[in-house]
Structures are given as structure tokens and as C-alpha cells.
Amino acid sequence: MLMQIIFSLRVPPPGKGALYIRPLLIGSGAILGVAPAPEYTFLIYASPVGDYHKASSGLNLRVDHKSHRAHSGGTGGVKSCTNYSPVVKSLVEAKSSGFSDVLFLDAATGRNIEEASACNIFIVKGNIVSTPPTSGTILPGITRKSISELASDIGYQVQERDVSVEELLEAEEVFCTGTAMVVKAVETVTFHDKKIKYRTGEEALSTKLHLMLTNIQMGIVEDKKSWMVEINGCDE
Ligand SMILES: *Cc1c(COP(=O)(O)O)cnc(C)c1O
């Protein structure tokens, strides 16, 4: 009887969002110096989250042409808290002006797009889907990888390469990827005083890719890629 109750308890209930799992490793030993911590604490947060995709319409990004989130040789390619403090000021300012996120440019030339504060970015033009390369200054997101694979499965040519701001402004569609948002369409990009609007909604490739990935995640379509991991919990 008790086992049956546990089996039927799903957090959150099916169709009501997802269980977000976030592992975290922090140095926790007693030390004041600049040195590796003598002790580490490994924590895992598990929290139900609402459906990010349905919660709002597309993203409105502002291109930051002054500050950068990561530099070559730094920690930009690692999921480290050191990558968030450089973005906070720019993000707070953008949000107070009504934007949803900031899009950062490469620190070396300031000409190419990198990623937003916590998600990767793709642009679409015709049959070509392009995303900046993972050369150390952007996070190599797992959703970025999955979405690249799914887009190429349905016949798009996926290119990992430098993407200039000019190309971003001339794209037909732009979208972002990350575990929490899965895939989210970018509705507008603002660069200086230019505001560009992109394709969103039913017609958009991002809508199709979102459905493809969530259908695999929820077991609605067969997972031919072995992306799903079965966790044996209370039945053992
Ligand atoms: C978490 C994160 C992403 C997305 O990574 P996923 O593995 O797809 O969740 C992209 N960029 C940054 C800076 C991030 O922190």
C-alpha cells in the first residue's frame, strides 16, 4: 500500500513543469587565503519548476556592446558561479528597461555573438542553423548539443562557427537553449538603436525543436539516441 502511494507521487505532477536538478560543488573548508579549499561540499538541489516555455512569449534580448561575460583563457566554458557576477549589472539594467536578457559579444573583437547570461544562442537563415563555437568563452550546453543534433536530423545544416552581429540582425529566426527553458524563441534583438523582430510561434523552427526534445524527455516518442536515463528509486 505504502509503495503504491510512493509510486504515484510525482514531483511535480505530470504535465505541470519539471523537476529541476542542480548539482553544486562549493569550497567549504576553513581558509582565508587564495588557494584551493581544503574541503568541498557537494549539494544537489531538486526543485519543481513551472513550464518555462509556456510562461511567456519570446525573449527580448539587448546586445551588450560594453561589458563582456568571458575572456579567452578564463572560466567562460565552465558552469561556474564566477561567470554570473560579470553579467549581473548589465542584466539588471536590461531588465529594468523591459528586456528579458542580455546577449554578450566576444571580448576579443566585439564583433561576434557569444551567448546570453545563462543560455546558448542559435540563428536560422534558410536551411542553415548557426551557433557560436565552444572555444572556451561560452558554456557548451547540453541542450545546445541536443538541439543541434535534432535540427540536423530534420535536414537543417548546422554550423558551429563565429556568428557576427550583422548576421544576427539579418537572421530570419533566433532562439536560445538551456535546460530550464529547453528552447525559447527570441522575439526581438536590440543593438544600439536598432530593434529587429524575428519569426516566432507555430511557423518557427524553435517551436518544432522544442516539441521534438520535450517529446523525447517525456517518453511521448521513442528515444532513439539513448539520451534518457532510467533512475531506479523506491522500487529497489
Ligand atoms: C547553463 C548555461 C547554459 C545552458 O546549458 P545547458 O547545459 O543547456 O543547461 C548556457 N550558457 C550559460 C552561461 C549557462 O550558465
Automatic annotation (TrEMBL):
Recorded hits in PROSITE patterns, A to Z, give:
AA_TRANSFER_CLASS_4
Q: Does the keyword Amino-acid biosynthesis apply?
A: yes
Instruction: Return one GO MF term.
Output: branched-chain-amino-acid transaminase activity
Q: Which UniProt keywords apply?
A: Amino-acid biosynthesis, Aminotransferase, Branched-chain amino acid biosynthesis, Pyridoxal phosphate, Transferase
What EC class is this?
transferase
**What is the catalytic activity of this protein?**
L-isoleucine + 2-oxoglutarate = (S)-3-methyl-2-oxopentanoate + L-glutamate; L-valine + 2-oxoglutarate = 3-methyl-2-oxobutanoate + L-glutamate; L-leucine + 2-oxoglutarate = 4-methyl-2-oxopentanoate + L-glutamate
Which cofactor names does the annotation list? pyridoxal 5'-phosphate
Q: Please give the PANTHER family that the UniProt record associates with this protein.
A: AMINO ACID AMINOTRANSFERASE, BRANCHED-CHAIN-AMINO-ACID AMINOTRANSFERASE 6
Which family does the record assign? Belongs to the class-IV pyridoxal-phosphate-dependent aminotransferase family.
**Name of the protein:** Branched-chain-amino-acid aminotransferase
Per the UniProt record, the source organism is Brassica napus (Rape)
